[in-house]
Every structure is written in C-alpha cells, then in structure tokens.
Amino acid sequence: MTAIVGVAGPKGFLLGDRRVTDGTGHRWVVPAKVFAGPYLLAGAAGLLACVKRIERAVAKAEHPSELVECVDDESEALALFRGKLWSIDSDEAYELPQKVFAIGSGGDEARAFMAGRGGDDEAAARAALKFVADVRNDCGDGMRLVRAPGRIG
Q1: In Å, how far are 35, 89, 96, 143 from 135, measured between CA atoms?
Q2: What share of residues in the chain are helix, strand, coil (percent, to 5)?
Q3: 44, 94, 102, 122: which has the highest count of C-beta atoms within 10 A?
Q4: Number of domains in the chain
C-alpha cells in the first residue's frame, strides 16, 4: 500500500513512499508513486496498475480531471494543480480545501502526525512518512519528492 503526502501552495510538493505490498504480505520497492508533468503533480495509492496509468497520464494531463479515467475502484490519487491539492477517485476530481492532505493506507497516520507536529514543510512531511513506515508494515522503503516547478505551482 502507500502513503502520499501533499502540501499545497506556490512551493507545494508531493512526497510518496516506495513500498508495494500484496494481500499475502509480500513486499516490493517501486521507483516512484508520485510524478511531475508540465502542468501538475500527481501520485496514486492502491493497485500498482493505477500507479502506472497515473505515471503515463501526468506527462500529458493539463488538469486533474483528466486523471479520473486512470483511477479504479480500489485506488485513489492526489494531485497538485495551480497550488491547490486535488483528490481523484474513479468518479471525479475535486479541489481540496486543506493545505496538507495524505492518501493511501498510511494517509490517516501521516495527516495525524503532521497535524500534531504542526508543520506543513518538507521536513514535517518526511518525518510523517518516516513515522508511518515505523508503525505500518505496508508503507516505507524510502521516499520520492516531486516539487511544483514552472507552470505547476
């Protein structure tokens, strides 16, 4: 499973773990679950096939709504577009009011950690994912950060 933290704003970013697990407890490390395109950042949690569809789509997508078709009923995605976070499921994409949000099996723990710590910067997000990896066996194996360059933020 996954933990992806997103922070909105002109210097926003997505930070994701790299572990993939299955129902039997097997674990694999993937290079990335968060990706940068020319117009937005996005990451996916759930089925690995969804992560791969998001990776391909981000390269061309100009709006988070274009990623809806990539998400299946067992997955979810998080995007950063024009400084705002967007939640994406298999039915719709919608803008989130929060400055900080997290998705995946470790998303609740990451959000709670960041709220308790009171930070919304890269250090807080990295500490949150480290905490999630310490308390869950389905998250971890390193992190990948993508920042909002140029047209994204």
Answers
A1: 25, 26, 27, 16
A2: 30, 30, 40
A3: 44
A4: 1
- Largest Cα–Cα separation, the chain: 42
Structural domain including 89 reads: 4-118+137-147
**pLDDT 10s digits, 95-149:** 999 999 999 989 999 999 999 988 899 999 999 999 998 888 777 778 899 997 6
Give a yes or no: residue 125 inside a domain. Answer: no
**Residue 81, strand partner residues:** 84
The residue type at 39: Y
Q: Round to whole Å and give the CA distance between 70 and 110.
A: 24
Task: Tell whether 152 is covered by a domain.
Answer: no
Taking alpha carbons only, the member of 49, 45, 129 closest to residue 89 is 45
